[in-house]
UniProtKB/TrEMBL annotation:
Pfam families: API5. One of its GO terms (molecular function) is RNA binding. Transmembrane segments: none annotated. The keyword Iron does not apply. Residues 462-472 have a biased composition (Low complexity). It is found in: Nucleus. This is Apoptosis inhibitor 5. GO terms for cellular component: nucleus. GO terms for biological process: apoptotic process; negative regulation of apoptotic process. Residues 452-487 are annotated as: Disordered.
Amino acid sequence: MPTVEELYRNYGILADATEQVGQHKDAYQVILDGVKGGTKEKRLAAQFIPKFFKHFPELADSAINAQLDLCEDEDVSIRRQAIKELPQFATGENLPRVADILTQLLQTDDSAEFNLVNNALLSIFKMDAKGTLGGLFSQILQGEDIVRERAIKFLSTKLKTLPDEVLTKEVEELILTESKKVLEDVTGEEFVLFMKILSGLKSLQTVSGRQQLVELVAEQADLEQTFNPSDPDCVDRLLQCTRQAVPLFSKNVHSTRFVTYFCEQVLPNLGTLTTPVEGLDIQLEVLKLLAEMSSFCGDMEKLETNLRKLFDKLLEYMPLPPEEAENGENAGNEEPKLQFSYVECLLYSFHQLGRKLPDFLTAKLNAEKLKDFKIRLQYFARGLQVYIRQLRLALQGKTGEALKTEENKIKVVALKITNNINVLIKDLFHIPPSYKSTVTLSWKPVQKVEIGQKRASEDTTSGSPPKKSSAGPKRDARQIYNPPSGKYSSNLGNFNYGERFRVSHCARPGRGFYTRKTIKH
């Protein structure tokens, strides 16, 4: 093993050789042997090996292995020095191997070391993006779970920081191609991260790019399979995927396939849905997603059939007036409870799809059915007006800080819900029914709060997801207003849209969306 003096002497030989440095193979070998020495010798070797690496291609493997030994040394200062110098080995065909090594080093628990690895990866990314991606995806597909997890997070956080000259169209195509391979077997959290990665690519900002992403999500959601409402993990999978799809929909990228699936498979089973998330109103969650998607539904093959299913589900939440006894009082013990949040979602969805078949209520329903519906609408509208008056009275004169209390924020949301329902009901009371009014769903963020007007806006609070479970697009935390018990009481519970669904297994042949298969080494 060479001493410190011998390392310096051989370093001098190589430094003085200038253009003939490649002729001094023996001197470079001495420096490589420095990794077998003590702490001082290793520190010098960590600096000297990369400095002359490019001059000895025949010793490339030995040099990289020597530096890798230093990257795994017990002395943290030696490891850091060796990692810092790794990008100098990233030349030609060696680059993917260096990228692979650096990706494996992401598993370190030392924060300074971890930052060095990140910086080194970014450094070689700018040298050769395709080669670096080769090393990263190699570990994502075949590496240890901790390495895979951190490599995916590296891509999700660092790609967006790279300039356009690095993330060329060809590089983005490679990311998409490799990501598709990974998406064949991912956990729920990994799926969300990959959607974040892909939706951030410039080449996928186009209509055709967004359509590609929607198709990827549809494949993960398994929309070709029969829906199983009793399997909480499969319900979870559908909701997780739908959340990723919703931001992609637009007037040019249609939600038809998802809306059709919800109408045909999910709505008929709404009452039997199960979820692994404690305290979640799963039915309201489904209805909110359907409402958001309904705005972007294109031409639907079985429009009348699906509209009827939506209509029938709406009727379940639009009660008939209670029968009156001979003395004019209610025969029943209590008034039906009006579930405003459910009705807002269902009525909005019906209103959106009804535009595509405007004669549904007049031509597709028999007279008795239409009469029954209008009675329900009228009864609901009466309760609605009482509720709206109560809310406006409670919020009257309140501005600024007063509106920021939890109680008043809930009331503001409740007023938005009831105003929305009121507008939609008025449309349907027209003869013939109209579908022209436009409302903003109550959970959508609004900037201003104006109580003096007939509409009130919500102060929104964005919830930050846990570090390990980023759920893509953030939702506004929202509680459902539960008015005082009485004639028009609602029984709605609480709901926080920012909550993440847990990652769990949903059995499906050849796919492991919630639990990855065992990696073969």
